[in-house]
Specification:
2 strands; mainly alpha; about 65% helix; extended
Length: about 130
C-alpha cells in the first residue's frame, strides 16, 4: 500500500496582494523609537517643548483635570483612594530607583574600567539631574 504525505501534496499559492511594509505604521514607530534611542537629549527636549506648548495653548487643562478630583464639599476626595495614593508614591520610588541604578552603574565602571560602559555619560547625567 502506497501512502501519500499530505504535507508534500499541498501547494499553497503565493499571496499577490501583499501590503508593502513601508505603508504600515510599524516602520514609522520603529524609526521614531530608534531616533529617540540614538538622540535622547533631543527627544527629551522635544517632549518638554511639546508638553509646554500644550499647556501654553490650553492653560486651563491642569486646573480642569485637577477639578475632576476636587469637590468643594469633600476637598480632594481621591486622596483616600488606595490605587491613586500608590500611583502618587510610585513617582518618588521610581526616582530613587533610577538614581540608585545610575550610581551603581557608575561605581561598577570605576571598579571594572576595562568593561564597556552600559550607557553613555550624557544619559547618566540626564538621569541623575
Amino acid at each position: 500500500m502506497h501512502r501519500i504525505n499530505p504535507r508534500s501534496s499541498i501547494k499553497i499559492p503565493a499571496m499577490k496582494n501583499k501590503v508593502p511594509i513601508e505603508n504600515s505604521p510599524k516602520p514609522i514607530l520603529k524609526k521614531l523609537t530608534d531616533s529617540c534611542v540614538s538622540h535622547p537629549m533631543i527627544s527629551v527636549g522635544l517632549y518638554v517643548c511639546a508638553v509646554s506648548l500644550f499647556f501654553f495653548i490650553f492653560p486651563g487643562a491642569d486646573i480642569w483635570s485637577t477639578g475632576l478630583f476636587y469637590s468643594e464639599v469633600f476637598g480632594f476626595w481621591a486622596k483616600n483612594m488606595a490605587f491613586l495614593r500608590d500611583v502618587r508614591y510610585l513617582g518618588i520610588f521610581l526616582v530613587q530607583v533610577v538614581a540608585t541604578t545610575c550610581v551603581a552603574v557608575f561605581v561598577l565602571k570605576l571598579l571594572i574600567p576595562d568593561r564597556p560602559p552600559l550607557s553613555t555619560p550624557p544619559v547618566k547625567a540626564v538621569l541623575l539631574a
